[in-house]
Structure formats: C-alpha cells, structure tokens
Amino acid sequence: MSALNPDDILNGYINGIFPMAEPDGTIYWYSPNPRAIIPFENYKPSKSLRPVINRNHFEIRVNTDFEGVMRGCSGPRAKESGTWISEDIIASYTELHRYGYAHSVEAYRENRLVGGLYGVSINGVFFGESMFTIESNASKVAFHYLIQILKLNGFALLDTQFINDNVLRYGAVEIPRDEYLDLLSNALKVKVRFDGTPIS
C-alpha cells in the first residue's frame, strides 16, 4: 500500500510543499527557500535543438505511458547516487495520474520510449517533477512540447522546485519562498486544465 494518498499530495502542492523519498524509502516533505520556477518567457529552444524539433525526430505522446516515464526518471544517473523516486512515490503519482492530476510528456523513436518528463497540474500551476533521456535531446524535445501545452492551455506558473544545471538551461530562476507562495496562490485561481492533445 502506498504511503501517500492523492489528497495528501494535492494538499501539499497547494500549500507549497512536495514529497521526496530518501534511500531507505522514508518520505519527507520539502519547501525550498529559494524556490525555482521557469517563467514561460524565459524558455527559448537552443539553436541546436530547433532542427531536431523541425525534423520531428521524436514522436511526442502525452499520457500514454505515465508509469514508464516515472520508472525512466527513477533510474540511476551518472552524477547522482540513489533516487528520490521510490516505489511508494511511483504508486502514489500513478494513482494521481489515474485521477487526472499527474501527466507525462513522452518522446518515442521507432515506438520505443526514449525520454520524457512528468509533473502534476492543479488549476493554473504545473509542478514539474522529473525528466529522463535515453537518446540525446529526447527530454529536451519533451520539455519544449510541455511549454507549448502549458501556453496553449493558459497556465500561469511552472514550478521546478530546486535549481540545477538541467533546469537552468530552460530558463529557470530562483525566487524567495514568500514570493513563490504569492505566485502559487494567484495561479491556483486560474481555472484551466492540462489538455495534452498532440501538437502538430
């Protein structure tokens, strides 16, 4: 049985906190200060990525293999030891996905999942959780399409929790926690839904 239920997770996000698992499986809640977000206007695809997008090098799908994306994100990373995505986390977020709150954007090559990302949407906020890539540029293309989906759907805030080199390349910035909570409160009042209709 999962250690987290969907209501716990949703209430956490609404209040600016989110769960992560330690190597022993213990789940803790976090509220970073400062907090990392990606303003939509900050994102610009790199010159090297544009040809990959224009060639449709990857087939992009939305919400077709949510658990597969989570398991890809939970795999070992070259510069990190362990993972915060435990079996309990996978079970809990997969349940959230079934309820329509958690979403994945997936990149395929020859019908094989080679990269993607997932997160949680509540009204006008998308809480980005993690991404993975097996083929070069796969997660970058998935992120590009995530931005397009969020813009088309009228989202107001993209939360990325912590700053790191990966999110910096997408235009992430750090802001004080109080400022984040103000943005969060306002964005939660924006009544939109995550519509993952494929973008041509």
UniProtKB/TrEMBL annotation:
Keywords, in A-Z order: Acyltransferase, Cytoplasm, Transferase
Major location (coarse): cytoplasm
GO molecular function: leucyl-tRNA--protein transferase activity
Ranges in coiled-coil conformation: none
Bilayer-crossing regions: none
Record InterPro entries: Acyl_CoA_acyltransferase, Leu/Phe-tRNA_Trfase, Leu/Phe-tRNA_Trfase_C, Leu/Phe-tRNA_Trfase_N
Pfam families: Leu_Phe_trans (PF03588)
Domain of life: Bacteria
Purpose: Functions in the N-end rule pathway of protein degradation where it conjugates Leu, Phe and, less efficiently, Met from aminoacyl-tRNAs to the N-termini of proteins containing an N-terminal arginine or lysine.
Name by which UniProt lists this protein: Leucyl/phenylalanyl-tRNA--protein transferase
